[in-house]
Amino acid sequence: MTRAENDPRAPFEQLADDLRERIKSGAIAPGEKLPSVRKLAEESGFVPVTVQKSLSLLRHEGWIFTTGRGSFAYDPESPYSPTASPVTAEQLAELKAQISELAKRVQALEEQQADRADS
Asked: How far apart are CA 33 and CA 28, in angstroms?
């Protein structure tokens, strides 16, 4: 990817579009680490600030995630994938029920611990 001078899009959008297409096509595999900002800047001809802005956009859109180890393409099977279906009301209700049950179990364990400490 190199900067197209006649492209009306902002440079960071050009690079983001290129990276998005590489992720969609599988050229950057799900879970694969993206090249470093410096490497992407060298490959694309864009300055590092532009690369960072592109990565920020892709992060915001859900195409990548970033850790202390770098940026990675999301796995399409991941619930964080841009193509993932939203959580349904039923799924949310089930999660709430599970959390409620876990809270009751924790409370019972804490009461048992307190009873043992009092004995």
From this structure: 8
User: What does the pLDDT look like over 27-60, one tens digit per residue?
Assistant: 999 889 999 999 999 999 999 999 999 999 999 9
Q: How open is the CA angle 75-76-80, to the nearest 5 degrees?
A: 75
Contact present, 16 and 7 (Cβ < 8 Å):
no
Residue 49, pLDDT score: 97
User: What burial letters (b/e) apply to 37-48, b meaning 16+ CB within 10 Å?
Assistant: beebbeebebee
Contacting residues for 33 by C-beta, under 8 A, at least 6 apart: 69, 70, 71, 72
Question: How far apart are alpha carbons 58 and 67 in whole angstroms?
Answer: 14
Locate all alpha helices (DSSP H) within 1-119, ordered by sequence: 11-25, 37-44, 48-61, 89-118
